[in-house]
Amino acid sequence: MKKRRKNREQETGKDSEAGRTTLRSTMGPAESSAMDEQSGKSHAGRQTRPGLQPLLSPRRLVLLMISAAGLWAYLYLGIGPGDLLPGTGQAKALTGFFSRALSPALDYESGFVARDAAPLLLNALDAARRTVVFAAAAMSLALVAGVVLGFAGSKSWRDLQGRMAGGASRHLRIRSSGFYVAVRMLITMMRSVHELIWAVLFLAALGLSNLSAVIAIAIPYAGTLAKVFSEMIDETPRDAARALSEAGASGGQVFAFGLLPRAIPDMSAYTLYRFECALRSSAVVGFFGPETLGKFIKLSWNENHYGEVWTYLYALFLLIVVVDWWSGALRKRFAA
Question: What SS3 class is residue 59?
Answer without folding.
Answer: helix
